[in-house]
Amino acid sequence: MASILTNNAIGSAQFHLNGGWRNTLTVVCGYAVVIGGLIVVTASLNPSEARTILSGWTKGLLVLQIAALVVYASHRIITGIRRDLGGQMIESHRLMPIPPLHAVVGYVFGAASQSIWLAVVNFSLGGFTTQFASLPAQYWLLANVVIATFAVFVWAIVAAVALTSRGALFWVIGPLLVYLISGAALARVVPGLSVLATPTQGVSVFDARLASRPPELYAVPLLCQGMIGVLCLVAAVRKYRRSEDAALGPLLSLALLAAVVIVCAIGIRWEGDFGPSYLYGSGNAARQLIASTYVVLLFATVAACALAWADALAKRQAARRNIPPTVRRRTIPPVIGLLLAAGIAASLAWSAPTGAVEPATVSRYTAGIVLAHGLAICYLARWMYARVDRAALVVIIWIAVVWLAPLVIDIVVRVARDGSEDLGTLGTLSPIGTLIAVVHPDEADPRIGLLGQFALALLTFALYRFDRSRSGAGQQP
To answer: How many helices (H) and strands (E) does the chain have?
Structure first.
């Protein structure tokens, strides 16, 4: 493990591309002088309130710690990876005798090295402010451990997304900042977020009462972070090793879907243990289940696209007669993979508290919704992959139209007709509306909506199956 970090050519290259020791020492020393000077000056200006001022600086240093380790480090990782991808440098790196895992770790820790040194300065300064503010030392230590482990978890996600998409900063850091700036209010709607966002759990890292929080309460969240982080790291290694492979293959995407279901189930079931205690009251269990199912449905969409891409590559390879059957790709048939995804997603319904919903009914409909949506997305993506190697834009447009259009039209029609804002039959044609109707059966019949979604899946299957141009297309990506 030490050789991955200390004897890593990619990490060393990233470190020197960011200025090396000269730039790092200049930035870190300047930062230490400025922040340390501000701490001393503000405490000296009002000696009678020095303890309160230093206590405020302790919390301020935690904010700077999150900014350095989570935001700035993630930005440097994304910049380093996208720079090498854009300049084709990563192709020469693939020819080097370096294991893909070492290369990905080098990109992460090499690009984040300056941020790590800034975090060391923050930790040292915070040790002094904590001591002179008479705050518990274990509070400062625990808060930094929580932030550091959360940062490593975010880095793994950032590395996987940066190797796949140009908008890694938007897709990862954007939602994270929205969650943190909102004061973790989104955790009341999707409690699984609070399981992963450990800095906001309980009283949060900004409250000294964190020292009295049992450390074992972080065991399950750390396992969840590790589970998803390892899957993202494996995805980054896959993408680095072979550019034509999807970062998330069929098995990996299904494993990620299962991990997300586990995290959402833990958040719903034990909201009181892992949710932010500074938010008054608890969320509505039925609404939390609906919102969490939407999140699961998005990850099921990723699995459907992964199954479609793997099937497209297998079909392209099989069409080449010069490839021996023994080296051809083996992949999961899309329908089998989607049935597995539906079964995984259906288990989420059993995490709701007793009496909140009817779990057997919700579970059956969830499986149907995921299967219908997955089939539609899978065959739509297969139709696109017969022409180009990207289907993300078409899939996003499909989701926006199918999920939102029936609801919007239903609301407009019902309000204009009788002033009612209840869900109508037309609204159940959306997966969102179907699930709402399942949880609130007095509003509409969900069976009609589910049949409509399978009809859409049949439409995309027909579009793919009877497309005469698909056999001649399918260029190598």
So the answer is: 21, 0
